[in-house]
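Justification of resources, computational component.

The compute hours requested in this renewal are based largely on the per-chain cost of generating structure records like the one below. Each record pairs the submitted sequence with a full structure-token output. That output is archived, and it is also reused by downstream analysis tasks.
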Amino acid sequence: MPKKKDSRNALYKKSWNSLLTSISQEKKNEKVNKVTVLESYLIDSEFSDENIQKCAKALTNETIEKYSINKIFSSVEKFDYVLEIGFLPGVTDNVATTAKEMLTDLLSLPNNTNLKIYTSKIFAISGKLTKRDTDKIANSLHNPLIESALIVN
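The structure output for this chain reads:
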């Protein structure tokens, strides 16, 4: 259980409401009600359940995060849209590279292991949003030259 509230959620909410609100609209008409940010690690390897748990614990900042395995939205309340931002194939994912090094050491794997890790940020968003609004939010978050944005309603 997180010990502190993750401040990123409120910051994204404020930023996106500002992005989606024209100067003439009042604050009470905010379109984004709630944002939950999830850090996603896709680990492409065959590990025992015990090693998967070790990996999840090692990749989690227990002060503000909790992990779930194969249940990505188990801790997320109701949402209207999900937005995932991740690197395109062939683009270096520095967080994934670091995670691979860490897990290789943690599990005493050989350096030439076939372990593959991919990271992304997932945003569960609730509010009175249109597809156009979520496209605006996605465009504010990613660089289409190196990242993809997937929006699911």
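The CA atoms of residues 78 and 126 lie 7 Å apart. The chain has a mean pLDDT of 87.
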